[in-house]
Amino acid sequence: MVALFLVLVLSHAPGLLAEEEYYGSISRLEQCSGADNLTVKFNTLYMNYNGDTRYTLTFNLTCSKPLDKPMDMMFEVRKCATEHGPCEDFLNHTIENLCTELETEGSIPATLFVMAGLPAKCPIPKGDYVTEKTEIKIHPELLAMGRFGNYWQFKLQLAHPTPSGPDILLCLYVEGRVATVKAKKLKRRKGR
């Protein structure tokens, strides 16, 4: 789902790739603060750095009741001047009718749910779901966000839409950094 954040950001800012190379790191991945009473709760959630842009994701979550239509997936992306702020809104996006997207084979949400060990169809049964050491890689186009800033905050939420506002079911918070690395061109000396 973290990858989905990044894909959505890039879909709203095409043509980001340049001659520069980018390096990305995830510094914080956790359930949103104050989200202990939500329908979907992370019991464990952590990421290990494997080098380059690769990470291993492990989590155990409990879904206390079935998740069914209508359900939306909401993303908030903030760009920050430094690791500790100040930050400003960069992108807010909602995928409405998430269940329909899940039922579309090969869609980004369906692919991500399967990768996370969740069923890619509604209703999603209540129960415990475990993903152990699933390798994820930060997509190169995602790293091109470094052209807009170095520090980023992402929030992912699943929610039932209601007339009084969304009923939040799941909330995931991520902080990351993207740095630009300019490749040096080495000149060869004559005779070598």
UniProtKB/TrEMBL annotation:
Native source organism of the sequence: Menopon gallinae
Keywords: Signal
InterPro entries the record matches: GM2-AP_sf
SUPFAM superfamilies in the record: Ganglioside M2 (gm2) activator
Stretch forming the signal peptide: 1-18
Tree of life domain: Eukaryota
Name of the featured protein: Uncharacterized protein
